[in-house]
Write a structure and sequence with these properties.
The complex is a heterodimer of chains A (about 200) and B (about 375). Chain A has about 200 residues and is mostly helical. Among the domains of chain A are: about 80 residues, Four Helix Bundle (Hemerythrin (Met), subunit A), CATH 1.20.120.1200; about 40 residues. Chain A contains 6 helices and no strands. Chain A starts with a helix and ends in a 38-residue tail after the last helix. Chain B is mainly alpha-helical and about 375 residues long. In chain B, about 65% of the residues lie in helices and about 0% in strands. Chain B is globular, with a radius of gyration of 22 Å. Classes of the chains: A mainly alpha (about 200), B mainly alpha (about 375).
């Protein structure tokens, strides 16, 4: 074993442990802000594992999109919703927790057996690592992966249209009298173009 | 693609006179070390050099900021610490190191400590991609400039973290503003960079500079991207939270934003991070638009006219020196303009800032990108076919 292999194995160990610990923290911690920050840790260690697999572009994209955009937006949503709510203790809570644990463990066992049973076609060790990953990804996007690529862009377009409609409140029909208290900002009602009070929807939720 | 990725770290060409890495490893082997161990000893050296370089760069930038600000206000500025006050930034740094490290009683101690660290590390990591010469870079990463954009998107998480952990209204508002600003200006920044990448057919910073070389000052991207460089500089200033856009720490509104509760070394990390980020943005600007290490007069042509071979050792030393000097000169010229802007332009309001980002810079940068693509198809010679 030379230095490069040793470094790879050690960093894989560190990244894997960090990822698992952070993911467990996301699920098990009761403070939602900690969970959101730990989610960022999960994404970063995942990017590290992509890097170990020679997928440098995917790793950078993972950091840019998941850490830089999605995780920051999650944190934004959490910090803007400053409603302090006391969670009352639910009676017989252990039944729920137990059911969740069983379902999660079942899923884990299912995926684990799937991973073990599937005959993975591992490329021979002599395979040359792709030098220019961006070019390769681009070629695949416009040839054999064209349909998924286009579908994903249509999905993103739909999400964008939805976000614009939520942000422009005058498009939403009025819902006077419906007072949502949980998870809304204590803000003043905004005057819409018609001069009436628009609904109290929160754009970023 | 005319250039196959090379793996020459801080060293000259294989067929040429000077090979720092090779010579260093050879001399260690002569001392009786195994080849693997010799390589292991070499590896941290360029990284350490980069860390030290970045820190010294910050000291210079702080001194410049104090002196130029003083000149803009008809003061003298730092005067007694060293000749012309050059040691003043060191004095500032030592003061901050020895100040008491306070963690507010009702704050979240863990997140409070982790916040500044998360802000500083990505910025230093981004120095990985800055080239100072053809073979004077820590590493030639394939995704180079994209890595810089990705890493700079981690910083807002650190800012949000410190803003939240401080348990202070001003801090939280500052953190949220910093994150909003950073997300808004990242998109025009990335689109301006994308236009350059489209012209150079590569994300690697070394390829981007090479594509501008050969014609001296006339070949620089600034002539081919007159709109792009303005967008990039505005967005970069906003990402660095420099003065026209320093809303996250606006003194009159938010005390000091997310830095309000910080003191001592943790504050020093924010301070260091902001200046390292400014210099890094200036370096990246000079790489993208001002031809990086290229001097205004093409050096290799000059050498060709005199009749000196490219691989002559003394010529390589001179080229490397000129390359480093040119890169630093361009970067510090940009830092100078940023400091002048600070004393020229008043601070914008938060709604003006977001309107400028989303309603003006974003459409303009999209049009710039489309125009670049069209020009590239029409004039492949001038716009890198």
């Amino acid at each position: 074993m030379n230095i490069a292999e040793g470094v790879q194995i050690v960093s894989f160990g560190i990244l894997g442990t960090t990822m698992l610990a952070a993911a467990l923290g996301v699920v098990l911690l009761s403070n939602i802000v900690y969970s959101a920050f730990l989610l960022g840790g999960v994404f970063v260690s995942m990017a590290g594992i992509y890097l170990l697999l020679n997928a440098d572009f995917v790793a950078a994209a993972q950091i840019l999109i998941y850490v830089g955009a999605i995780n920051v937006l999650i944190l934004f949503a959490i910090m803007l919703v400053n409603k302090q709510e006391d969670f009352s203790a639910v009676p017989k809570r252990w039944i729920r927790n137990g059911a969740t644990a069983i379902v999660c463990f079942g899923l884990f066992a299912l995926l684990g057996t799937m991973v073990l049973i599937t005959p993975w076609s591992i490329a021979p060790a002599t395979a040359v690592a792709v030098q220019d990953t961006v070019v390769e990804i681009g070629k695949h996007f416009f040839s054999d992966y064209l349909l998924p690529f286009e579908l994903a862009s249509v999905l993103l377009l739909m999400a964008m249209v939805g976000a614009i409609i939520l942000a422009r409140r005058d498009f939403i029909p009025e819902q006077l009298g419906v007072q949502q208290t949980a998870l809304t900002l204590p803000e003043q009602p905004r005057e819409s173009s018609a001069g009436s009070i628009a609904s109290d929807e929160m754009p970023s939720s | 693609m005319y250039r196959i990725a090379s793996y020459l770290h801080l060293s000259a060409n294989m067929n040429s006179g000077i090979d720092l890495q090779g010579t260093f490893i050879e001399s260690l082997k002569d001392l009786g070390l195994s080849p693997g161990l010799a390589k292991l000893v070499w590896m941290p050296l360029p990284m350490l050099l980069m860390l030290i370089g970045a820190t010294v760069g910050v000291l210079v930038a702080v001194w410049l900021e104090r002196k130029i600000s003083a000149a803009a206000q008809q003061r003298i500025g730092p005067e007694y610490a060293g000749p012309l006050g050059v040691l003043q930034p060191v004095v500032d740094g030592i003061k901050l190191v020895f100040k008491e490290d306070i963690i507010p009683a009702k704050s979240d101690a863990w997140l409070f400590t982790l916040g500044p660290v998360l802000v500083v590390i990505p910025v230093f990591l981004s120095y990985l991609i800055v080239p100072f010469g053809q073979h004077l870079a820590i590493t030639d990463v394939n995704v180079g400039i994209f890595l810089w954009i990705a890493l700079s998107s981690i910083a807002p998480i650190g800012l949000l973290m410190s803003g939240y952990a401080s348990n202070n209204k001003y801090s939280l508002l500052g953190g949220l503003r910093a994150a909003a600003q950073s997300i808004s200006y990242e998109i025009p920044l990335a689109l301006a960079v994308l236009a350059i990448v489209m012209m150079s057919n590569s994300l690697s910073t070394i390829d981007i500079v090479e594509q501008q070389s050969g014609y001296g000052i006339l070949g620089w991207n600034i002539w081919r991207q007159p709109v792009g460089f303005v967008i990039f500089w505005i967005a970069a200033l906003a990402e660095c939270e420099r003065l026209p856009f320093d809303l996250p720490e606006a003194e009159e509104e938010l005390v000091a934003g997310y830095q309000t509760e910080y003191a001592g070394m943790k504050f020093a990390l924010f301070y260091l991070g902001s200046y390292v980020n400014l210099i890094l943005s200036a370096l990246v600007f000079s790489v993208l638009y001002l031809g990086g290490w290229e001097s205004p007069i093409p050096m290799d042509r000059l050498a060709g006219w005199i009749g000196v071979s490219e691989n002559t050792p003394w010529l390589q030393v001179i080229t490397a020196t000129i390359g480093i000097t040119m890169t630093l000169f361009k970067a510090y010229f940009l830092v100078f303009t940023a400091i002048l802007l600070r004393w020229t332009v008043p601070r914008v309001r938060i709604d003006q800032l977001l309107n400028l980002g989303w309603k003006f810079l974003l459409p303009v940068s999209l049009v710039n990108l489309l125009l670049t693509a069209a020009l590239k198809l029409t004039f492949p010679i001038a716009f890198g076919g």
